[in-house]
Structure formats: structure tokens, C-alpha cells
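Weekly structure sync, notes
Attendees: PL, DS, HV (note-taker this week)

Item 1: NudC domain-containing protein 2
DS walked through the input record. Source organism listed as Lophotis ruficrista. Sequence as pasted into the shared doc:
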Amino acid sequence: MSAPFEERSGVVPCGTPWGRWYQTLEEVFIEVRVPPGTRAGDVRCSLQSRHIALSVRGQEVLQGKLFDSTITDEGTWTLEDRKLIRIVLMKTNRDAGNCWTSLLENEYAADPWVQDQMQRKLTLERFQRENPGFDFSGAEISGNYSKGGPDFSSLEK
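Item 1 (cont.): predicted structure, written out as C-alpha cells:
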């Protein structure tokens, strides 16, 4: 069995002062570095459809309105090795054209190059889903890939 597309193709991270975030067609991943030895009891994390709030040991780390909506019941957070918090949000809109340009509405935006690479990756991921069995992990995409790339769904098979 082959690994999921996003594992084979790598991630396109957007660095932040507290860590990084990246996305796939379905999910947004947030990785927050925390002081070594942090315990789960030190963490307060609220995940709502359009809002996130994270504090560690009483210090606010991340708070605000998300770029787009998520499925509240599907959001999770974990503390790994007592030094990294990983938050996984499930996107409500899972089109390749729904490439988040920032994590929050007005914060943690991807620079133009990173945004371009994120959109390319989501477009390739979409092609992989539409064409199971083909390996797109080493593929390069050029041309019109903005907003998810060309739509081939109306073509006869």
C-alpha cells in the first residue's frame, strides 16, 4: 500500500514566530513549539468553526478568526514529546481552489512564493484524487493552476 499523496509529496510550510502551518485539500495543520517539559494540563486550546485560541501556561500563543471555516467536531490537538503542539483542522470547503492564503484572517499570511507552492501542491493533490493509480509525487505543474487548475470533469472518459 502506498503512502497518502501528501506524505509522498512533502508539505509546503508557512513559518510563523511560534512554529508553522501547512495544508492539504482537506486539512490545515498547525505546529506550535512550546517550552520543553510542557504538560497537557498547561495547554488551553479552543477550536471552533471560524475561531482558534491557544494558550500555554497562561500565555496566549495564537488567537483569532480562521481564514475559512472548519468542521468543529473534527478539530484535534495533541502535545508531542512535551515540546510541540500539533493542531489538525478539517476544512469545510475541500476544493483545490480553496487554498488558504493565511492561517487567520489578517495574520500569518503565506508570502507570495509559499502561496504559489501551496496552490501547486493542492492542484496536484486534486489531480491525484481524480486519477487514482497514477503517481503524481514527482510531478511538476505549470500553467493555469490557480484556483485549483483546469477543470477536466466535463470531459468524456
